[in-house]
Design goal:
alpha+beta, 4-stranded antiparallel beta sheet, 3-stranded antiparallel beta sheet
């Protein structure tokens, strides 16, 4: 499920589009394999006759329910969780039937940090915490693939956005000189 491009502004472009790390799919895959193995074992080992057939159907129904709950649903959650980094903001979206989205403008990001446990370092993922100005404060992104590179890229995005939308020393000196000389102010972006 691709992220819809219509949520982006006119001059905005996607820099990184991530889902949580694939390690989130290990348990669902194991559950699916075990469910198939349990049904296959039941088919081979249960006695023939009406009792064995009923037991096989009950086992198959139970395995199907568990596979949906512990395998298909986590896959859908993983697939519909988006970490989107653009040149203007960070969008966090999740939800299978309902949808929650949080936009963090780059101008409001105060701090960001990453944390990796030992196993996460081996797998190449970790947790990224983004601190932003506002009511909700921190946003925690779990199981971010290549979290060290993502944090570095986020730093570069914040700095580039800041540089683009602020005046440099030379531009400020020109404006102050123009004001001293009585010249009309001009648009620095022109």
């Amino acid at each position: 499920m691709a992220f819809p491009e219509d949520v982006l502004t006119e001059d905005e472009h996607v820099v990184l589009h991530l889902h949580p790390h694939w390690k989130a799919l290990i348990r669902p895959i194991l559950v699916l394999v075990l469910a198939v193995a349990a049904v296959a074992a039941g088919w081979l080992l249960l006695p023939e006759g009406s009792g064995g057939t009923i037991a096989l159907y009950v086992l198959a129904a139970l395995c199907l329910a568990l596979a949906f709950w512990l395998a298909v649903w986590p896959y859908l959650v993983w697939r519909t969780t988006h970490y989107l980094f653009t040149n203007e903001r960070v969008l966090l979206q999740q939800g299978v039937f309902s949808r929650d989205r949080r936009d963090l403008p780059l101008t409001r990001i105060n701090d960001h940090s990453m944390h990796q446990r030992f196993i996460e370092r081996l797998l190449g993922c970790g947790t990224l915490t983004i601190e932003s100005a506002g009511e909700r404060g921190q946003s925690v992104l779990h199981d971010v693939p290549h979290v060290d590179r993502v944090q570095t890229r986020l730093y570069e995005l914040v700095e580039a956005h800041h540089d683009k939308h602020s005046l440099g020393d030379g531009e400020m000196r020109e404006i102050l000189a123009d004001m001293r000389d009585g010249k009309p102010l001009r648009d620095p972006s022109a």
